[in-house]
Amino acid sequence: MTKKIIAFGASNSKNSINKQFATYTAHTFKDAAIEILDLNDYEMPIYSVDKESENGIPQLAHDFYNKLGTADLIIVSFAEHNGAYTTAFKNIFDWTSRINAKTFQEKPTLLLATSPGARGGSSVLEIAKGRLPYQGASVEGSFSLPSFNDNFNAEKGIINEALNNQFQEIINTIAL
């Protein structure tokens, strides 16, 4: 039976390098059905208890939550804004956690981050690794790709041999 991967970049940038990285990573798994989500398709009002009590939980939050529920593996690549999650991701996360605090529904999850800088989004990746298990993510591995523009090529993938070896080691530990 073909396994399903849901992958997304935790950014609403139209040219998100994290969406590129999540997409690339999903395609490293052979014989999997892959669905790439775009956070722009799940834009909702900024979460507040007042908005929830007045209008309920938006259908888009239910849609996102239900998509995660169809996955055999979730791949998230985090963009870093001021050392933390992007507002786009945090807002979706806040809304979906109101459906079920275990937003990731105990699904195997691979956490990634990349950035143009030398730290590769490592601050947000550490936050995610610490927080998401409480939200039902079964974290199977994590990887930070520093200096995206120097270390990644759209056709070839990770072009730095040492980084690619580290990445492949993590990918090889994930049973799908």
Describe what you observe in this structure.
This protein has helices spanning 17-26, 49-55, 59-69, 87-97, 122-131, 148-151, 161-172; strands at 3-10, 32-37, 73-78, 107-114, 137-145, 152-153, 157-158. With 176 residues, the protein is of the alpha/beta class. It has one domain (3-172): Flavodoxin domain (Rossmann fold). The strands form two sheets. The chain has a five-stranded parallel sheet with strand order 2-1-3-4-5, sandwiched between helices. Strands 6-7 form a two-stranded antiparallel sheet. Strand 6 (152-153) and strand 7 (157-158) form a beta hairpin. Helix 3 packs across helix 4 (87-97). The model has no long low-confidence stretch (mean pLDDT 97).
Report the major sheet. 5 strands, parallel
Proportion in helices: 25-40%
CATH topology: Rossmann fold
What is the percentage of strand-forming residues?
Answer: 15-25%
Termini Cα gap = 11 Å
CATH architecture: 3-Layer(aba) Sandwich
Radius of gyration: 16 Å
Quaternary assembly: single chain
CATH structural class: Alpha Beta
Write down the domain tally.
1
Q: Mean pLDDT, nearest integer?
A: 97
Key attributes of the depicted protein:
single chain; 176 residues; alpha/beta; Rossmann fold; 5-stranded parallel beta sheet; two-stranded antiparallel ribbon; globular; NAD(P)H-dep_reductase; oxidoreductase; FMN_Rdtase-like_dom
